[in-house]
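Example record

The entry below shows one chain as it appears in the dataset: sequence first, then structure tokens.
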Amino acid sequence: MNVEFRVPPWAVQILSDFTDMDRNPHPVDASKVGRFTLELPDDAYFEYAFRDAAGELHPDPDNPERADSPWFPQASAVFGPDYRAHPLASSDPTLERGTLTRHRLVSAAMGQLRRVSVYTPGTGTGPLPLVIVQDGTTFLRLARLHLVLEALLEAGEVRPAHFAFVEPVDRTAEYGFDPNYRAFVSDELLPFLAAQHALSEERILWGASLGGLFSITFALHHPELADTVVTQSGAFLGTPTSRDFYREERSWVLEQLQDRPLQPFRIYGDVGTLEWLTGINRRVRDAVAAKGYRHVYAERNAGHNWVNWRNGLADALRFALAPEP
């Protein structure tokens, strides 16, 4: 489908999934280019917004559809005629049959108070695997990952697990190769949770965007603490010495996967085809396959947004917590 956009006369920038919204916006000038056309797949979901000279974000005045975004509520959304949300992307809140335990712990590694909420499903008994979820507050409240889990448990498609929804303080600094945050997770958070909950030995790392970068980075540093890694639109650009996740050409993750021996953990990755990270995720997929990792990879015609990631939760859970044979 072809979508025509009119540039508002007050707009100086357009932000979209292609630019991670405000991270790398594109300049616009209605006096020079008043309209432009974007070709999108018929099943696409895409988010964008305009910025004025005062720095304020605004939705497209010509588009009544609003994005379902916790980070950019001013954004507009484009739905292709064939777009369909995943059946479990809006799970029934009555499925919340488990218990949610909120923890606070003082981290010596980070020098601050940290918060984590642990969801244990209603069918969870005995020692269970632990899923460590970055951007935990958003995965819990907006994505409702725990409700998708309960729906799949009811259908017998996954195993129960404890889900630790870790709340970030400064996600860009923490998730982007921060050794102190890695130490917090490995040396403080994991022992704390093991003392509070009945855990099996299985560990699953889960994250979207920079949270996906942290999850696979943690697994590469601590393969003994990772059985499965789930990354959604993993922000795999950048290195520990060049933390530019938008323009850097090198990828520490890619280089490590190519150069290191095969590690014991499995990898699930998905990404949208309408984001700047599609290319690097495909290169990581190829490296993972060439090395012989047990892996699954998926793409959707969507952007770098929570609607896209919600649509991938069920398949990721089926991989990460597949029933024992």
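Notes for this example: The chain has a mean pLDDT of 95. The first strand starts at residue 2 and ends at 6.
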